[in-house]
């Protein structure tokens, strides 16, 4: 005679409920609705209803439960055509499963967590507005000039304006304003390695894909100086055979050996 404990029955019921949510979920529709509502979407991609999948789902659910206005959960089965299409969209179709993909309201991917995820990962993936915008532009392969200000109106350094006229860069540049006194963007300020006291007049920090800090530029920086910094970093174009990219890799290799 087989004895079923209360704990085992509870687990069986819980798994059953999760299976129903998996079957009924339309991750694409959930994502669209969340973006319209200004919410982050955490999409759990899975191949089967394994304990590992259940653990990931549980962590995501619990992590976002205290911030329902900011985040929502969606699930996507890799066995379905919809799930496969969504995985292709986020380029995770060949990634280890289960996989959680964090998507911001503007469509930027703010986190990729294969096999397992922790609450700290979920919290970190909910990024503030300016950081979210920077991530979106970087994922579009843009050179992002974060124009720093101590007021509501960001001033763009003259050299950055002049660089917008350069055919090599004009279609690859994004200008985003950031008030250095905005405490919600402290994490971005830290990543930009900028102190608020540095900002005296027009000032910009340049980030290149995938998230490389190229440098800081003030009102006295010229377009030629900014272009030289971009070339030195090997971020002037998308051509892997570009001579500047080669030089940048060689410099990094030399620095590593030292």
UniProtKB/TrEMBL annotation:
Q: What is this protein called?
A: Thioredoxin domain-containing protein
Task: State the UniProt keywords alphabetically.
Answer: Signal
Q: Which InterPro entries match?
A: Thioredoxin-like_sf
Q: Where is the signal peptide?
A: 1-25
Top-rank lineage group of the source organism = Bacteria
């Amino acid at each position: 005679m087989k004895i079923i404990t209360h704990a085992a029955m509870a687990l069986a019921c819980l798994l059953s409920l999760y299976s129903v949510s998996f079957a009924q979920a339309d991750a694409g529709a959930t994502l669209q609705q969340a973006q319209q509502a200004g919410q982050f979407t955490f999409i759990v991609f899975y191949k089967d209803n394994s304990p590992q999948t259940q653990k990931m789902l549980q962590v995501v659910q619990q992590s976002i439960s205290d911030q329902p206005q900011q985040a929502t959960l969606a699930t996507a089965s890799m066995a379905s055509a919809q799930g496969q299409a969504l995985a292709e969209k986020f380029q995770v179709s060949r990634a280890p499963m289960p996989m959680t993909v964090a998507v911001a309201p503007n469509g930027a991917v703010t986190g990729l967590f294969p096999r397992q995820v922790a609450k700290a990962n979920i919290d970190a993936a909910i990024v503030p507005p300016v950081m979210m915008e920077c991530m979106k532009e970087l994922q579009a392969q843009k050179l992002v000039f974060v124009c720093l200000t101590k007021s509501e109106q960001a001033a763009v350094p003259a050299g950055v304006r002049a660089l917008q006229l350069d055919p090599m860069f004009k279609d690859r540049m994004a200008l985003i304003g950031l008030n250095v006194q905005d405490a919600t963007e402290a994490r971005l300020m830290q990543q930009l390695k900028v102190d608020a006291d540095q900002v005296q007049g027009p000032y910009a920090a340049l980030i290149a894909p995938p998230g490389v800090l190229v440098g800081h530029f003030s009102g006295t920086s010229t377009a030629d100086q900014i272009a030289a910094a971009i070339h030195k970093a090997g971020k002037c174009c998308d051509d892997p055979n570009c001579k500047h990219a080669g030089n940048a890799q060689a410099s990094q290799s030399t620095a590593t050996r030292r």
